[in-house]
Amino acid sequence: MELMDRYLALVGFGETGWGALLLTAAAMTLGVSVCGFLTGMVLGSVITFMQLSRYMVLRWLADGYTTVLRGVPDLLVVYLFYFGGTAFLGYLGGFFGYQGFIGMPAFLTGTLALGVVSAAYQSEVFRGAFNSVARGELEAASAVGMRPWPKFRRIIAPLVLRYAIPGLGNTWQLVLKESALISVTGLVELLRQSQIAAGSTRRPFEFYLTAVVLYLVITWVSSIVFRRLETRTLRGTRRAL
């Protein structure tokens, strides 16, 4: 009991507790992960259109993008965005006469890095989902004279989303784990806050264990959300036995 009381005092919300800071950091982790995931969804959709294009140049560019981004370490992508963005902002500031240091915002760096990396995976998910759509449904929409945008909005997008949700759930889990890499830019997310607390109290095990629990809670809630989304998109369809 004494050990548990000491642990609760460390991670609680009292005067010496780190509970509020850990929850704030967990919210930051969730925020940068959601922004990165949504950015990757938009960019991944564009890459998918390029992959399915009848123009060979666009297909080559899309394939090159997914090959490079899936082959390069994610931490290297974070560094490239942070230092590359800082250099660009410094050059831009110098152009307007400002000689001071301009650092790339850590949250923006995380959003862009996570989005660019996850887009490579999400594009493959979308492409596989599109290839799973029955050709007859698309041909039927064309046969009745449906224009491209209504056809996409009413037929293609709902069907692709139905098949893509399980894969998107896996991609979301990857984005959530990769968000810990953003701590190298100075963003105080869950892992970084755990490191700060562990260094200040010299109790690393307790704080890293708490970080594990918070990550698992976010993962568990996320799994429930994606399962419900999958169930909702399958409403009205008949599953194969």
Automatic annotation (TrEMBL):
**Does the record's keyword annotation contain Nucleotide-binding?**
no
Keyword field contains Thylakoid:
no
Q: Where are the transmembrane segments?
A: 20-50, 71-92, 98-121, 155-175, 207-229
Look up the domain of life of the source. Answer: Bacteria
Keywords, in A-Z order: Cell inner membrane, Cell membrane, Membrane, Transmembrane, Transmembrane helix, Transport
| PROSITE patterns assigned to the protein according to its UniProt record, in alphabetical order | ABC_TM1
Q: What is its main location?
A: membrane
Per UniProt, subcellular location reads as:
Cell inner membrane; Cell membrane
GO CC terms = ATP-binding cassette (ABC) transporter complex
User: Which stretches make up the ABC transmembrane type-1 domain?
Assistant: 26-226
Name of one Pfam family that matches: BPD_transp_1
Please give the SUPFAM superfamilies that the UniProt record associates with this protein.
MetI-like
Recorded GO MF terms: transmembrane transporter activity
Q: Which InterPro entries match?
A: AA_ABC_transptr_permease_3TM (IPR010065), ABC_transp_permease_HisMQ (IPR051613), MetI-like (IPR000515), MetI-like_sf (IPR035906)
Q: How does it sit in the membrane?
A: Multi-pass membrane protein
According to the record, the signal peptide region is none
Question: What's this protein's family per the entry?
Answer: Belongs to the binding-protein-dependent transport system permease family. HisMQ subfamily.
Q: What is this protein called?
A: ABC transporter permease
